[in-house]
């Protein structure tokens, strides 16, 4: 547009110059001649061109003005476009930021959802969410089916009242209580397959800003294994308490049995066999022996009776015990034995292992006879450590021998099975058992480092499994035992008897006096020390109870070792710990006699102590452990 304007302006200027030139140069030259018409025509042409040029100039001026306005409008429009474009770019950037933020939030929500799903679907606990307003289940984790054994069916686990054990119905909190406060409860449920599970249920309300409960969230955990461990711990604590009690009871009870047995034997010595009182005295002695056996069983159960372990050939032990048991069985009870000859040997007590087997066989016999008759099956097998089914923490040997005793009797209910090894628990009447058979067997197996358990179902019988640690290698041949030579009858001696049981002190004194000995008596440790101080050189033997009041028997023994090292001592005790036996054996010229004892056994020990040569002495050692 500007170039055209310049061209038109230049043309207009040139036209004006031509008009001026015509007016003042050409026209005068042409005037008055033949060229005048041409001049007229040229005038009209130049005038027309001039007028057109002026009009064109005016038009160009108008167009130029319009162009300026349009240029200004274009500039304004461009400015508006730039502004709009800038705002669009800003809005686009804002939208992109919002989109990115939304994408990040969506990713976070997706990750949170995935994390929630990973947690709730892979933990063993049951996570649930419930709407209290309409008691509607909003969510429950898949573990519900594994724990409850059923589908939730739109109801939160806390509302499955039909699955709760009837005895625990009162332990299940209501939904209204859960909506008000945090709740924790423990109860049992019964699965459709009949299995019982312990549940620990915790829930808390989720509140809105108004204080109204929006949801209830909860976690239900299967704690059956924890309850079983707790029961085992309580059972172990009960056993430990009974074991501690057993030692104290054994001492006092054996003192009483010793007095009764010694009194009955003393009367028997002066009673002819045809005397009507002889059977009564025999019954007294037999009852004392049975009482001593009960104490031994109690100590075995408490694992406080000392073991005399030796390598045992189990096929022989099992076969002989089964033969002895079969001889006492009712004909309605059969016994099948299948024991291979290649059973690994064990290190066990030759008395207690048969006692354990016999107790289990007698328990099976009673179960079979209770159903009118049946069969016991006794089998055994070798089991490597890797195949032992009990927990690794209980494994201490590289290999085991497993003895199975199965019966087809009545079996046990869960309540009875839970108490099977408890002392004095029995399903029999008082005339058929005292409840120590299985408890004693349990104690013997544990004392040998083994494990005992059982499988049972009501109406399907019971199978006991005894796992005993096996030895590596063959059993060495036992040394031949030298025949025991009876002790020679000693000459009359002066004997100091220190015993805190008055009746037993009198009986021992009378018995020794009857055998020609001079007896000095002491009822406690202080009196014993006084007697040793005054009559020590004349005393030939000290009979000492370790559990003396005042000053203990150990203090008396230490004084004897210090001032009268050549004095022989017979220690009598109702119950002695292993370290006590080891300590007395290390002191020299000390023999131990456990109560209750027969007079014949008492005489043999006393005679041997009086006639024995000096035994080597050793330094007194403090008890270990």
What does it look like?
- The longest helix is centred in the first third of the chain and has 87 residues, at 36-122.
- This protein has 15 helices and 17 strands.
- The protein has helices at residues 2-30, 36-122, 143-148, 175-180, 224-269, 277-301, 314-328, 352-369, 414-418, 437-447, 502-514, 525-535, 553-563, 578-585, 599-611, and strands at 126-131, 136-140, 183-190, 196-207, 213-222, 309-312, 333-338, 346-349, 374-384, 399-407, 451-456, 462-469, 494-498, 518-522, 541-545, 569-573, 590-594.
Summarize this structure as a short list of keywords or feature phrases.
alpha/beta; 17 strands; 625 residues; five-stranded mixed beta sheet; five-stranded antiparallel beta sheet
Give a quick summary of the entry.
The protein is of the alpha/beta class. The protein contains 15 helices and 17 strands. α13 links the parallel β15 and β16.
The overall strand count is: 17
Count of helix runs: 15
Shape: rod-shaped
Based on secondary structure, the structural category is alpha/beta
Through-space gap between termini: 121 Å
Describe how the helices and strands are arranged.
Layout: H1 2-30, H2 36-122, E1 126-131, E2 136-140, H3 143-148, H4 175-180, E3 183-190, E4 196-207, E5 213-222, H5 224-269, H6 277-301, E6 309-312, H7 314-328, E7 333-338, E8 346-349, H8 352-369, E9 374-384, E10 399-407, H9 414-418, H10 437-447, E11 451-456, E12 462-469, E13 494-498, H11 502-514, E14 518-522, H12 525-535, E15 541-545, H13 553-563, E16 569-573, H14 578-585, E17 590-594, H15 599-611
Parallel strand pairs: 7-9, 13-14, 13-15, 15-16, 16-17
Antiparallel strand pairs: 1-2, 1-5, 3-4, 4-5, 6-8, 9-10, 10-12, 11-12
Helix pairs in contact: 1-2, 5-6, 5-11, 6-10, 7-8, 8-10, 12-13
